[in-house]
Every structure is written in structure tokens, then in C-alpha cells.
Amino acid sequence: MALDSEIKAQLNQYLQLLESDVVLKVNAGSDSVSEEMLALVNELASMSSRITVEQAQLERTPSFSVNRVGEDTGVTFAGVPLGHEFTSLVLALLQVSGRAPKVDQNVIDQIKAIKGEYRFESYISLSCHNCPDVVQALNVLSVLNPNISHTMIDGAAFKEEVESKDILAVPTVYLNGESFGSGRMSLEEILAKLGTGPDASELSDKEPFDVLVVGGGPAGASAAIYAARKGIRTGIVAERFGGQVMDTLGIENFISVKYTEGPKLAASLEEHAKEYGIDIMNLQRAKRLTKKDLIELELENGAVLKSKTVIVSTGARWRNVGVPGEQEFKNKGVAYCPHCDGPLFAGKHVAVIGGGNSGIEAAIDLAGIVSHVTVLEFMPELKADSVLQKRLFSLPNVTVLKNVQTKEITGTDKVNGITYVERDTGAEQHIELQGVFVLIGLVPNTDWLGENVERNRMGEIVVDRQGATTLPGVFAAGDCTNSAYKQIIISMGSGATASLGAFDYLIRNY
């Protein structure tokens, strides 16, 4: 397997940045994945005199580790890190060679202070756009702390291992042989799970803000940047910076950018926000909002932040179908991201609940991987665009059930079927299958606000043309509001509007 000329040209530039010699220790067999891996590591060695390859006994075949000379660094790739993981490989080479990771110094100090042995394993698929964040974070831990090691495992190359552990969602992380977590996790989230995050008193001691933004998606980032540019004290509280954009793969309608991907856009938003010295408080969940002399925001960890104005931009989340079995079998056959988890269901029968654009796009995507897809739509007709429906109905391994209501997702230790009711006859039917993908739209993240601000029957915050809510000094923007359309570019615009509205409120009231 040869790298294409464009990738080689990019790689050549990166390999010039290696700061010291790197040894790739390789354990290969005679299988096709081993051959592909050998071709990759040999090509890397041929492109830089700083890279050498040597045979070694590693835990898995095929795999290779990335090491400093005379030292096991603890960074291992089991499989061939191409696709979305190619960047993880490049960063591992650079960081092992001595280039500092792009991580805040306080985070580096936290990592170096970790005591005890930590052996991480991450199970990924090369088509998963959430997985590289986890792989790269765990690699940084391994590079910076000699007591920590990490092996990335491509589920497609180690099917038996994945099936023996009943892994049905990626990324899934094990620590010292025990389940640690699944889904996207940032470096800060991993450190928090290890017990090294900031405590409530650090946050409560902060001076009051002029503008405090709740939520770090496109609306929140835009609002904070607009506020900070006015020279006023600005903070962002976010459960995870980037919000739902982090779960978005291809973005082709962000005007002036022909194509980008969600995690890349989220990283750019965070970088832009940091340029203005905005106080970003990540991994914090809002609990309650009250108006006193200032507006007070209570967090789940007990901290209380104060501000003259607040902009709520908490976005939306995937809507649950709300039937027995959905929560019980989440990550055990119930999934919400076909790009991430689809490859784990190769050759199996799956269902997609939802006949809108996202559901039908998922069904088309999955049909190329699984043996059969059954689409369940509650309404008498599909809601997806006609071009998507035409493509769907051209596929030989798709069944579409319309006018049906999902009643239960069944299983024992993992999903084994789905039960639905035909809405016109009332007849109950059951299908045996191994996976269920739920794609039925979004629900705003506004439950925590209670009766403090007016919300419509969908739970969306009602705002005026300045982005103001019914509570003076509190503004809102993005997918958590009653905006007509939920789009990244519209969220950014509404964030700017709410920020300008908040600034106007400040100059009139303070």
C-alpha cells in the first residue's frame, strides 16, 4: 500500500519537524493488515533519516509502537492508522520526537503529576471522526508521563477482540483492563475522570463578568468573541467546547469554506476565542440561573459565577425515542452516530428510526456496510428530500416501514431486536436485528432554566430581535432558541446579535 502523492507531500513537510530520532517497533504477521502496516512504516522510514524500523514482540499482531531511542514511550497503534487516524500518527511521531503538544501548561503539569500505572486501550474505527480526539489525548498522556501507556486498536482489524468484549460503539476506552468510558472525550475530560480537574472554589472565587456565555458551540463562541472585542470582561462556561458541531462530519454550507469537518471548525472557534483572552471554563454544566443584584449562574459542581449579563447558548441534543430498551442498550447496540459506529455492525441487520434527512442519510450510509437496513418512520410518508428517497429506494438491502410506532428495543446483554406497532391496524410486529440507530431530530438543552425565562412548547427559549429573553439582562442564541432554522451559520449570527444586545443593555444599565 503506497500513500498517495498529496498525503506524501503533506507528510514530508511534517517529518521535517521531527526534533530527534524515532524508532518504530513492529510486530507483523502474514495477514493483509500486517502487509499494509509494514508498507506504511517502511514508507515512513524511507521518507526521513530520523525514523528507523525494528522488529519487536508486542501484545498484538499486527501493531507498532512509536519510541524514543532506548526508551519505550508507551504509544502503540494496533492496525493501520490511516483515515481519520492519520493525524494521530503524525502527531505521535512529532511529539515522541520532542515537539511539545499544543496543550496549556497547567494541563501538562496535571499530567506529569499523575502517579500510578495507567494502561489505556482505545477501540476505534478509521471512519470515526470522534475517535482521533480520544486517541490523540491518550497519546499525549503517554508521551508526557512514563507511567502511562496507550494502544489504539482498529476494531475492523481485531474483530474477535471487539466481539469478545461486546464493543458496539466507538471510541471505547479501557483502563487497566476495565471499561473506562465511551464516546468523544477531550484531554480535560479524561483528566477529570482521573480526578485531576478544577474544584468549585476556584470557579466561585472569580470576579463578576460583564458578559457570561453559557455554552461553547458556534453561537456561544460567536457571542463571546463579539463581547471580548468590546474590551469587556467575558467568560464562557461549556460542558464541552464546540457543542454538537463536534459530532458533525462534513460541513459544506458554511459560506466561504467549501468543506470542513465539525471537530476542525470547533478547534478553530476555541483558538479564536482564546486570542481574546476569554475565560473558558470547560467541562462545567449549568444547573440554575437566578437574578439578584447581578445574575448568578450555579453549576452542577456547586460553584456560583456572577455576571452583569448572561447569554444562554446551550444548543440542542439528539432526541431520544423514549421506549424501553433505549437507555439500557445505549452503546450496546443502540447508537446515534452512523459514521462512528456503523463499521462495528458490518454484515449485521440494523434499524434506523427516523425518516427525515438525517435518518435517510444514515440508512444510505449504513446500507454500504451492514447486511440489511430497516427504516422505521412514524408518519405515513418519509420527510427526507426526494433526492435522498430516490437513492434509498434504489438500494437492494433496505426495507422502509412507514406509519409505524417503535414500542421497544429488545435484548439481553445487547440489542437483539425491535418491536413496533402498525399505526393503521394496531398490529404488533417484531424484527430480529443487532443494532438500532436513532435519528429523530433535536431537543433544546433548556430544562435547567425552569420557569426563569419564557420557553415555547418545544422547550426553545423565546427571544426578541436583539436576542433578549423575558428575564432582563439574560439573552439567548443558537439552537436552544425559537430561531426558525437550526444551522451553524445562523447560530453564529444569532450569537453576534445576542452579544450586541447584551452590550447595549450594559451601556444603558451600568
Structure notes:
There is one protein chain. With 510 residues, the chain is an alpha/beta fold. It has three domains: 5-193, Glutaredoxin (3-Layer(aba) Sandwich); 202-317 and 443-509, FAD/NAD(P)-binding domain (3-Layer(bba) Sandwich), CATH 3.50.50.60; 334-438, FAD/NAD(P)-binding domain. It is 29% helix and 27% strand. It has 14 helices and 27 strands. The protein has an eight-stranded mixed beta sheet with strand order 2-1-3-4-6-5-7-8, with helices on one face. Strands 9, 10, 13, 14, 15, 16 and 27 form a seven-stranded mixed beta sheet that branches. A hairpin with a 2-residue loop joins strand 7 and strand 8 (178-182). Helix 3 (86-97) runs parallel beside helix 5 (131-144), helix 9 runs parallel beside helix 10 and helix 12 runs parallel beside helix 13. The radius of gyration is 24 Å and the shape is globular.
Reconstruct the topology from this structure.
Elements: H1 5-15, E1 22-27, H2 32-47, E2 51-55, E3 63-68, E4 71-78, H3 86-97, H4 105-112, E5 118-124, H5 131-144, E6 148-154, H6 159-164, E7 172-175, E8 178-182, H7 187-193, H8 200-204, E9 209-214, H9 218-228, E10 234-237, E11 250-251, E12 260-261, H10 262-275, E13 279-281, E14 286-291, E15 295-299, E16 304-312, E17 316-318, E18 334-335, H11 338-341, E19 349-353, H12 357-367, E20 372-377, H13 386-393, E21 398-402, E22 404-411, E23 415-422, E24 428-432, E25 435-438, E26 442-444, E27 474-476, H14 488-509
Parallel strand pairs: 1-2, 4-6, 5-6, 9-10, 9-16, 10-13, 16-27, 18-25, 19-20, 19-25, 20-21
Antiparallel strand pairs: 1-3, 3-4, 5-7, 7-8, 11-12, 14-15, 15-16, 17-26, 22-23, 23-24
Helix pairs in contact: 3-5, 9-10, 9-14, 12-13
